[in-house]
Design brief:
The protein has two domains: 5-140, Fructose-1,6-Bisphosphatase, Chain A, domain 1 (2-Layer Sandwich); 153-255, D-Maltodextrin-Binding Protein, domain 2 (3-Layer(aba) Sandwich), CATH 3.40.190. The strands form four sheets. Strands 3-4-5-6-7-8-9 form a seven-stranded mixed β-sheet, with helices on both faces. Strands 11-10-12-16-14 form a five-stranded mixed β-sheet, sandwiched between helices. A two-stranded antiparallel ribbon has the order 1-2. The chain is of the alpha+beta class. It contains six helices and 16 strands. It has helices spanning 5-23, 42-58, 90-94, 181-189, 204-216, 246-255, and strands at residues 30-32, 39-41, 63-66, 81-88, 101-108, 111-119, 124-129, 135-136, 139-140, 153-155, 174-176, 195-198, 202-203, 220-222, 237-238, 241-244.
Length: 261
C-alpha cells in the first residue's frame, strides 16, 4: 500500500488513465446531466468507481467529493477528504481530443495538501504536496514572470471577454483555451501560458489539484476577488479563479470589476 497520499494519488491517476483509454475513441455511451452541467459518459462513471475503490480502500476514514458521486455531507466532518474529477474535459474526451485529465487531490482543514493532474494521452503527470515542489513527470516546474496584461497569454473561455467583467473594458490579452480546467492551471505553472482565469463559479474538483500545483510552483491562486481558495466546503465552488504570478495577479485584480479594491 502506498505510504503517502501523493503516492496513492499518483498510482490511482495512472490506473484511471489506463481505464479511460480503454473507452477513448470507442464511442462510449454518453448523456447530458441536465441543468447546464454538461455531458457524462459511461467512462466517467467507470473511472469514478475505480478511483473511489482504490482511494477509499486505502484511506477509508477520508471523506469523498467527486463530480460523479452523490455528495455525502459526512465529508465535512472528515479530517481529510479526497476531491476528484474522474475525467476533467469530458466533451474533449468524447470528441477524441486528448486534452482531458484526471484531477485528484486531498484536502485537510480547507487546504489542499496533495494533488495530481494526469493526462494519459499526452503522457503528462503534474504533482505537488503542500511542503514540496511542483513537478511535471518528476521535474520541477518554472512559471513565467510576465507582469503586464497587455499581450499576456491567458487560458480562459470567451465569456471572460465580456466588457461587464472589466473596468474600462477587457484588457488586450491573448486568449487561448484548453478543455481541462485542471490542465490550464498546470500549463501556467509550467510557464507555457502567463495566466488562467475563470469569471464564473468554479467547482472544487476542477481546481483543487491544479491550484496546489500552481501555488507550489510560485504562482498565486485565488478567486476572482483575490480571496484565498478554500476546499471541502458545503457548497464546493469558488467565486471564479485567477492563477498567475503575483505581479500579473495584481494587474488582473486592478482591472476586474468584481474586485472591491
Amino acid at each position: 500500500m502506498p505510504e503517502t497520499d501523493l503516492e496513492l494519488l499518483s498510482e490511482a491517476a495512472v490506473k484511471a488513465g489506463e481505464l479511460a483509454l480503454s473507452f477513448w475513441k470507442k464511442a462510449p455511451e454518453a448523456w447530458d446531466k441536465g441543468g447546464g452541467a454538461g455531458p457524462v459518459s459511461e467512462a466517467d462513471l467507470a473511472v469514478n468507481a475505480l478511483l473511489e475503490d482504490k482511494l477509499r480502500g486505502a484511506r477509508p476514514d477520508y471523506g469523498w467529493l467527486s463530480e460523479e458521486s452523490a455528495d455525502d455531507p459526512a465529508r465535512l466532518a472528515a479530517s481529510a477528504t479526497f476531491i476528484v474529477d474522474p475525467i476533467d474535459g469530458t466533451r474533449a474526451f468524447l470528441n477524441g481530443d486528448g486534452g482531458f485529465s484526471h484531477a485528484l487531490a486531498v484536502a485537510r482543514e480547507g487546504e489542499i495538501v496533495a494533488g495530481v493532474v494526469h493526462l494519459p494521452v499526452h503522457g503528462l503527470t503534474y504533482s505537488a504536496t503542500v511542503d514540496g515542489p511542483a513537478l511535471l513527470n518528476g521535474k520541477p516546474l518554472q512559471p513565467g514572470t510576465r507582469a503586464a496584461l497587455e499581450g499576456a497569454s491567458v487560458l480562459t473561455s470567451k465569456l471572460s471577454d465580456d466588457p461587464a467583467h472589466w473596468r474600462d473594458g477587457p484588457p488586450a490579452y491573448r486568449r487561448s483555451f484548453r478543455p481541462s480546467l485542471a490542465w490550464r492551471l498546470c500549463l501556467v505553472a509550467e510557464g507555457k501560458f502567463d495566466a488562467t482565469i475563470s469569471l464564473r463559479k468554479a467547482w472544487e474538483w476542477d481546481i483543487a489539484a491544479g491550484s496546489l500545483i500552481a501555488e507550489r510552483a510560485g504562482l498565486r491562486a485565488t478567486d476572482q476577488r483575490g480571496a484565498p481558495l478554500r476546499f471541502n466546503r458545503a457548497l464546493p465552488q469558488s467565486d471564479g479563479l485567477i492563477v498567475s504570478n503575483p505581479s500579473l495577479h495584481d494587474a488582473f485584480l486592478e482591472k476586474l470589476a468584481s474586485w472591491p479594491g
